[in-house]
Amino acid sequence: MLKIILSGCNGTMGQVIKQFTKDDDSIKIVAGLDKFPEKYNNNFPVYENPRQCKEEADVIIDFSHYSAFREIITFAKQHKLPLVMATTGLSDKNEKQLQLLSKEIPIFRSANMSLGVNVVLDLIYRATKSLEDSFDIEIIEAHHNKKVDAPSGTALMLAHEIKSAKNETSHFIYGRHGKQERRNKNDIGIHAIRGGTIVGEHTIVYAGLDEIIEIKHTALSKNIFAAGAIKAAKYIADKENGLYDMKKLLNNE
Ligand SMILES: NC(=O)c1ccc[n+]([C@@H]2O[C@H](COP(=O)([O-])OP(=O)(O)OC[C@H]3O[C@@H](n4cnc5c(N)ncnc54)[C@H](O)[C@@H]3O)[C@@H](O)[C@H]2O)c1
Ligand SMILES: O=C(O)C1=N[C@H](C(=O)O)CCC1
Question: I need a surface site. Which of 36, 156, 194, 204 has the fewest CB within 10 A?
Fold first, then answer.
């Protein structure tokens, strides 16, 4: 049985994971971490400070907030705990810190744990290569009104994938407010919509001369992120130190 420490357990995703795993005998949440430990009645202890947590575990899953980043990586490092990092809004510096730390513990990093978005990553890599510079590329994402970071981690991950497929320097342009100039051909526009209970939508628009291609992923439930995170936890629990992602998991690397 895989023993999990769930960071951000009293948040939306934390509670989805709790529900998702409750009838699964192969997984047990042994402890939770959260800024508001009393918010829910959980069937595991919840600590405000990771230093209070003494439970033994095989892996830590983090769906919390970028402000918790330092204490989560410190905790994972001290306890040599494989880490599934799902939180978004991390800085480039934080992403580099994850790379460095992955020399000491196995780390699984993905801004989107769904299977579908990771297939889209592959599709847009190939579309971008095929279309070369003849199409302008823009990304539009939409999420619920409780989301605190923008653009979404997924939109950034998609933009980096496009950039890696283009053999030139792409510029990420976040909206165009106040920009009194034409679009540059190397721009990748990234646009965020927030409202209601939208679970998550990502549309990659390829606009060419007299034709448009759109590749779109729509999340209909947060269960897809929970399922992916659990799969990731099982996958890295006994892996060598290193940085892992969905591509590696899907390719069984
Ligand atoms: N990778 C993915 O597939 C994926 C999917 C969904 C959400 N997310 C990301 O996961 C994160 C959480 O999403 P959510 O919708 O559950 O958010 P949420 O706001 O509902 O929950 C976050 C939880 O973290 C806790 N928290 C906040 N700051 C903290 C701190 N400094 N220390 C400890 N706990 C703290 C909050 O009390 C809350 O319970 C976000 O960054 C979101 O973008 C990633
Ligand atoms: O609900 C959220 O918050 C989500 N965050 C991730 C992101 O920022 O890309 C993944 C989709 C849901």
Answer: 36
